[in-house]
Amino acid sequence: MGSVVRPLEVFTKTAYRNSCVWLGTCTALSGERPCWQWIWNGADHRIANDNGAVAMEHRVRAAELNCPTIITGNINSLGELTKKFYREKQCHLAQETDECRTDLIACLELLHHAKAAPPNIVLGGLSGRLDHTLATLHSLVQAHSLASGSTPSSPIYVLDGDNLMFCLAQGAHRFHLDRAHLTDVCGIVPITQTETRVTTRGFRWNLDNKPVSFGTLISTSNELASDEISVTNTAPVIITFELLSSITGLDTPPKH
């Protein structure tokens, strides 16, 4: 039967008790949406990297954003007043010692160890420097190894001002979509160096066990043709959906 994926749950009441990461690679000038505030404030687990903690400090002081529960990354780069402020807020500061790991994978490991319930949502990580965006994609592929046992982990959803994106593990997947939040433009992009074949249903241009790779074929600028779609992939792929620029009700939290 495969997995059932509901990516638009990030905008519904089920997401009001989520687990959230705020990456400092994205600021209000490069992709933040008003919904970030209630998604972040409603999270049971809130983890920020060091740059994110600096960027949000004045908003935490103003009680606009809830304090992170954990800050990780290069804690030594934080000013003493910033560290003192967050410690007084009972925020745990976790110095990352492995320079080969991205901030995002460090944040996701902390969520994993905390047994954080899905949906897991990353705010930021797609705007600004291209190498940071590529690091976000790399971290999403790595995050699949955090799942224990044979049950695949739930997708980790990444949001910026224009996109809802996630890495889809190898397997067969059915999607239930609320297209009222989407433009219908979407993409399926291979991300590993493993041969990747994809079969889709419910898209304007479907694939039938088609090999996809950079240099041959990638399915960008595709379009949704149904609220019910399916993707079967032999290796991890990146799925992207374009968000509407204005979505009724998105700026306010859902009702419990």
UniProtKB/TrEMBL annotation:
Keywords: ATP-binding, Kinase, Nucleotide-binding, Transferase
MF terms (GO), sorted A to Z: ATP binding; kinase activity; thiamine binding; thiamine diphosphokinase activity
Sequence ranges assigned to domain Thiamin pyrophosphokinase thiamin-binding in this UniProt record: 171-237
Gene Ontology biological process: thiamine diphosphate biosynthetic process; thiamine metabolic process
Pfam families: TPK_B1_binding, TPK_catalytic
Record's keyword annotation contains Cell inner membrane: no
Taxonomy, superkingdom: Eukaryota
InterPro entries the record matches: Thi_PPkinase, Thiamin_PyroPKinase_B1-bd, TPK_B1-bd_sf, TPK_catalytic, TPK_catalytic_sf
Protein's name in the database: Thiamine diphosphokinase
